[in-house]
Structures are given as C-alpha cells and as structure tokens.
Write a structure and sequence with these properties.
This protein is of the alpha/beta class. It has helices at 2-34, 104-119, 152-157, 166-179, 184-206, and strands at residues 42-52, 55-65, 68-75, 79-84, 89-94, 97-102, 126-132, 136-141, 146-148, 217-222, 225-230, 239-241. The longest helix is centred in the first third of the chain and has 33 residues, at 2-34.
C-alpha cells in the first residue's frame, strides 16, 4: 500500500517539477561555460531577479564585460523549435507532440529594458542572446542571435570592441548585485565587489591612471587650487582633488 501511495505521488509531482529541474540543469551548464571566460574582462552574474513596475523579472545570466553587457536567456529544451521574431509564442515539437512557450526574444528584451532602467545605460550597450540546448533543433525566422550552448563562448568572444574599463564593469556588476532581490550569496558578493572596486581605484590613482576611463592623470590648476584631472578631458571629467 505504501509503495502504491509513493508511486502515485511521484506520478503527480514529477510532471510539475520536471520542467523546473530541466531549466536549472540548463542554466548550470551555461554558468559552467561562462565561468571559463577571462575574469579580468568578464564578470558573470547568474540567476538575477530584479524588481520592475510589473513585479519582478528573473534573468538567467548576465555577463558584464569590457565589450558590452551580455543578457542571456537559457532554454534547455529538446525537439524541434519553431517560431518568428515577433510572435507571442514559440513551439517545441517533440515526438509529434507540440508544446507552446513564450517567445524568448521578447522575454529577453524585457530583461534588457529592466537593466537599462536600473543602470541608466543605453540599450545599444546590451547584447541579448538566447541559448538553446544542443538536444534541440532550432528552426526559427529571426534576426537576433539564437544559438546552441556549444556556440555560446565563441559568440561572446567574437565581440572585441572595448566599451568599458575594468573598473567600470565592476561598478556596473555591483549595481546589479545590489538590486538583486533573490540571492543572499549575491549580496555578499556585492560587498566583496565594492571592496575590490575601491582597492582597484586606489591602485589606479597611485599609478596616475584615471579610474574612470583608464587615461593618464595630469596636474592641473583651477579656480579653487591644484588638482589632478584626466588627460582625456573633456570626454572624461574625472577629477582628483589634492
């Protein structure tokens, strides 16, 4: 009798939790791939939840890099994936059975807009990417990056135009972590990030390097006395008062 009850519970519970388990597994695989990126140029943030005007939004992965901010949505699906760029729903066809899910491009666009508002950074600085499991067959009509997990690292490394300094990406990552409402661990990481940022800034100043843009700090005289300013003025207006 006991075995029958257990089996009955499993039959009822597994279908409910299996999609979540698959999703977590897919995110874990992607997180492992992202951890292989150079730490001095890429800061990896996993499972970030932000408050929005409509409630909250959960972002699988954010890679804050000197080349831009990658916003990654992970789908650990099997079967044939079909859909269009502006369609509300996409389809997963597996063994002749169809399942519908929300368009991940639109979903990820919502993530970008939430980060844009939080950080006050232009949308062009974000690089949205949707990643599917290699067990799926992608057959979609879109212009945005839809890739397999095996292509993720190469795709990220293909961006080589520098947009931020190392100090700036630490500051951006710190602001995201401070806004995360989901993880105590990330909040501890935020404190560590602040300490690292402060130490990095002090080291830059000691070497006459602008902590804001990486330019050279030079001696200047102003209305209120001597100070050090960035050689990239007026593009960079960093000032260190003596």
């Amino acid at each position: 009798m006991g075995i029958v009850i257990v089996l009955t519970i499993l039959v009822l519970v597994i279908p409910i939790f299996l999609p979540k388990i698959k999703g977590v597994f897919g995110e874990t695989v992607v997180a492992k791939l992202l951890s292989e990126l150079p730490e001095d140029k890429y800061i990896i943030l996993n499972n970030i939840m932000l408050k929005t005007e409509k409630g909250t939004t959960q972002i699988d992965h954010i890679v804050v890099s000197i080349y831009g901010i990658f916003v990654i949505e992970t789908k650990n699906y099997k079967g044939i994936i079909t859909g269009t760029e502006f369609g509300d729903k996409w389809t997963k066809n597996m063994y002749g059975k169809k399942y519908y899910f929300y368009n991940p491009l639109r979903q990820n666009y919502g993530h970008v807009k939430a980060l844009e508002k939080l950080l006050g950074i232009e949308e062009t600085m974000f690089i949205p990417i949707v990643v599917f499991s290699v067990s799926s067959q992608i057959n979609v009509k879109v212009s945005k990056p839809i890739i397999y997990t095996s292509q993720l690292k190469k795709t990220i490394l293909s961006y080589s135009h520098t947009k931020y300094t190392e100090l700036q990406i630490k500051q951006i990552a710190g602001r995201i972590l401070s806004a995360n409402v989901d993880s105590k661990e990330n909040r501890r990481n935020h404190v560590d990030m602040i300490r690292t940022t402060v130490n990095t800034e002090k080291a830059s100043i000691a070497n006459n390097i602008c902590p804001k843009c990486g330019g050279k700090l030079v001696d200047r005289k102003g209305k209120y006395g001597a100070f050090k300013g960035c050689s990239n003025f007026p593009k960079c207006r960093y000032i260190l008062n003596k």
